[in-house]
Amino acid sequence: MATKMPKVPVVIVGMGWVGGIIAAELTKQGVKVVGLERGKPRNTADYYMVHDELRYASRYDLMQDLSKETVTFRNTEKMAAVPMREYGSFLLGEGLGGASVHWNGQTYRFLPYDFEIYSKTVERYGKQKIPEGMTIQDWGITYDTLEPYFDKFEKLAGISGDAEQNPMVGKRSAPFPTKPMVKTPVLKLFEDATKKLGYHPYMMPSANLSEQYTNPDGITRAACQYCGYCERFGCEYGAKADVIVTALPIAQKSGNFELRSYSNVTQVLNDGKKASGVVYVNTVTGEQFEQPADVVIMASYVFNNIKLLLTSKLGKPYDPATGKGVIGKNYCYQTNGGSATGFFDEKQFNLYAGAGSLGMEIPDFNGDNFDHTNLNFIHGAGIRISQTGQRPIATNSVPKGTAAWGGDFKQKSLKYANSVLSVSPQGSSLPWKHHYVDLDPTYKDAYGLPLPRITFDFEEQDRQMIKFVAGKAAEIMKEMNPTTIGSSDQLAPYNIVPYQSTHNTGGVIMGADPSTSAVNSYLQMWDAENVFVVGASAFAHNSGYNPTGTVGALAYRAVEGIAKYLKQGGSVV
Amino acid sequence: MADKNTQHTPDHSRRRFLKYTGTAIGGVVVGGVIGSAVSGGFKKDTPQTSPTPSASPNPQVTADYNQAPMFLNQLQLQVAEAAAERIFPKDDNGPGAAELGVAFYIDHQLASPWGVNARTYRMGPFVKGEATQGDYLSIERHELITMGLNSLEETAKTKHTKGFVDITPEERDAILTSMEKGEILVVNGITGKTFFNSFRILVMEGVYSDPLYGGNKNMAGWKMRKYPGNQMSYTNMIDKDQFVVMEPRSLHDHFVH
């Protein structure tokens, strides 16, 4: 039997970026909040020995313990799903701060086009442009409505970026809070090449602070040291924005916040119309607790948001046969491929130095920034160069034709250790009727709950897109004048083994229509007015941009909705 | 840098002496940190008591009491070193896997949580899926690696009537290549390919991980590729056009400062 705790106004499931922001903002307003985090507490002092590639990058020290829970995967419904037994394609965070601790800090906003993708595609190309089975839909919100929330998130984190507005991305109401990061020789090479080709390069918006910064809450953080250990690592300086060095201290200072670590939520209690609280397990003792609450905020990673709703029987599960139902619908990923690698025989760059979001992008082939009339795909990819710090275990690029081991491999991998650059597209991922997440019929987690099951593959749309942007990436690399170029414009079927991207999206999508979306534009569930499901799970598709900027904006949007609901109840739209 | 004496049988008493003097490692003494796999010096060594620093004729003499195999048996350790050396061989650029201590690194990893798949999903059924669905091994990583090492030894014995460490480098390469191609079964149902891929990654980790893990001896792996290791800040040089070479620092440096 679960021990019943005293009722609270708000309980939050998961203390990552989303949970932390919502906790900070609500407690500032005087609302009592309990935050449940299944992992351990931690802070910057825990990263004293963080420059350890083996521990953090190869052995995934900060990631979810897969012995307790994972996902299962299959490419199509014809295959039997098998568990992801070890890490590969994407990395799930765990512990206080969640993925905000181990991210790179690349903080883009989605394009205005993204939020109205269906309408704008039909408007420009006609309905027949959308292939059979592709389930793109508008998000029920516009870029202009979301703009102030983007601004809030960027000010919380101190995002660094160009002072001038790039003409091809959403218009900003205010400049970036901090100046752009250092434009290194590598970045300049990319900038010169892309400008010569007539494109519009700009500095990657970065959550690695370019200078000391004090945010509107009065929290001051130090500048990034370009140490080259961001993605998969925590930042010992607090220069990389995460929720522990930004929002959480505000919540904790308010006196209205209680954080419970080692608390794994296993159920959202509900009667089908409203939630009454959550059940969680103390992962240290195994004891069960019930936490009653007026409002339940689901703020864990995409898969856990979906899984908890399905196992708690909250919302209508998606049925791929009919296309009806919403929970698990429109699972999307990121389509990465088509990068061009340049080997520079005569040049060495300081590639060991860098930062997670030290880079540049051209938006010219992202979204609908180019004409798709004669192309067999919609949307596109951001084409980038980045200097994140080339760590030696992970980075041993050799020209094509070199063996994978032995004397020649050693010689070439050493020769090019500081002389290899890549121009890489990060492609959008659009939803299909037959891509979704449901519950696995066979495999269970350590608490006896079914694992989430992913059914996903790359489609002809993705292969065409990668072929197209691969040509652009190779063109840019050629202009950068390396000795030799390696590139491929082929996209293989989705494979869960090689690392690609931790940008999993969808499953609890937002929209204006309760029959095709799970949450409204305030992230409030259509089917349960006191449940808000916040995060990239709300994305109706994934753009060619990193998701965190948009996730942060949605968190601020949700705060407004939750506050409204606490005052007046009912649907807030 | 090591000299050209690597092909000669070492003088054991001299070797032992030099082995325990700090100046000798990577200098006169040949081969890897567990002895020269090339000359077979290690396996012919008889167990002996290490001289204690105070009893030594040389005040600089120290024995590294923190270093000994945790997991593999003696033969497996030697085979691991010989195989690792073929994957990342000594050449004009600098030491190979043997001298870098990669065999010790691998041994230590097999004894670690990684070796027993502590943080991987282990509930059954274990079903062989498609290539796109990933690993399905029901055995643990330390079992895969030791079975693979045993298989290298058995294959050498079958083909050449000699152990893996006693055949020529070319013969070792041929066996490793068969492993890589999956032509040799390591154990029922598991091809050499699975072992080889995992072993190759272990070797690269042993070459380039922080020395605290037992490989990358004296940061020589990093030095070869001009990787500076654990530095606190590159703010002063991040915008520089010229390539900056700096003396690497390890996590040990970070810890004691």
From TrEMBL, chain A:
Pfam families: GMC_oxred_C. GO terms for molecular function: gluconate 2-dehydrogenase (acceptor) activity. Keywords: FAD, Flavoprotein, Oxidoreductase. The keyword Oxidoreductase applies. Its EC number is 1.1.99.3. Residues 436-555 form the Glucose-methanol-choline oxidoreductase C-terminal domain. Gene3D superfamilies: FAD/NAD(P)-binding domain. InterPro entries: FAD/NAD-bd_sf, GMC_OxRtase_C. Belongs to the GMC oxidoreductase family. PANTHER family: LONG-CHAIN-ALCOHOL OXIDASE (PTHR46056:SF12). This is Gluconate 2-dehydrogenase alpha chain. It comes from Paenibacillus qinlingensis.
TrEMBL record, chain B:
NCBIfam families: TAT_signal_seq (TIGR01409). It comes from Paenibacillus qinlingensis. It comes from the Bacteria. Its EC number is 1.1.99.3. The chain crosses the membrane at residues 20-42. Residues 41-63 are annotated as: Disordered. Keywords: Membrane, Oxidoreductase, Transmembrane, Transmembrane helix. This is Gluconate 2-dehydrogenase gamma chain. GO terms for molecular function: gluconate 2-dehydrogenase (acceptor) activity. Residues 41-59 have a biased composition (Low complexity).
